[in-house]
Amino acid sequence: MLTYDIVDVFTDRPFAGNQLAVVHGADDLSTAQCQQIAKEFNFSETTFPSSRVEDGTTYGIRIFTPSNEIPFAGHPTLGTAWVLRERGLVKGPDLTQVCGAGPVGVRFADDDRVELSATPRDLLGPLDDELVVALLQDVGLSLTDLAGPVWVAGCGLTFVHLPVVEDAVVRADPSSRPLRSYAADFARVGEARDPIEGINLHHVVADDGAGRLEVHARVFVPGLSVEEDPATGSAAVGLGMALVAAGRLPEGGGYAITQGVEMGRPSQLLGRVEASDGVAKRCHVAGRVQPVARGEIAVPRPS
């Protein structure tokens, strides 16, 4: 049997935010066995951290959706770090997670938030109208709903950041078309280092009075069997890059994202991007983690 923790990430209370299963002691499991466990939990992501922790601060991690292994994700990064600290397996406020996209910094703040820091990897765009119209139609919208240039950006998992008018966020329908079907269209814009897997549909509401932009977002990831995600840290860090490129945060700054409301799992993500001269240099996203359950799960038979 393997032990596991279930936590909710990007929320100040249990049974909101984004669910995560963290499975321990799975170092010798094959990819197929990890995938079976992730499918059994059927959360947007399940993680398998390495049992080996160097200097109490550096550890490896594998991240799976119900259908695929992915190189990077936000709420699994924060949730796994929180679980490992709760179990006494890591120490100190600053950690390094090593995932498929490389090392990712994780910091525990004094206000109980956990923050990840990632390096920009992909920035393509702005996309042309023909491709934008097709992407909008996939989520039940039209060009009249568009509210700015569309950028493709990410720090390990790449998203189409689609800005729309406020009511369009609520009116949108989850897309069932994997973005890989647009591979040739994206290739004409530029070469992406990481998979382009989701649509980050968002509206910049206003300045929240604290010097941050206020954002309402929904994220659809049909190619990874995630119809809609309630809180997406990987999309949040990529959004920082898109906001810089679109001129909303040319010298960097903060933004607060509300996501998951339409799913009944309200989430709060605090983004921050460092930039100069209109170029994003470093991306961050923070949130709180809530424990929900702990137990054991059987080891799948090797295939």
TrEMBL record:
Which superkingdom? Bacteria
User: Which Pfam families does the record match to this protein?
Assistant: PhzC-PhzF
Q: What is this protein called?
A: PhzF family phenazine biosynthesis protein
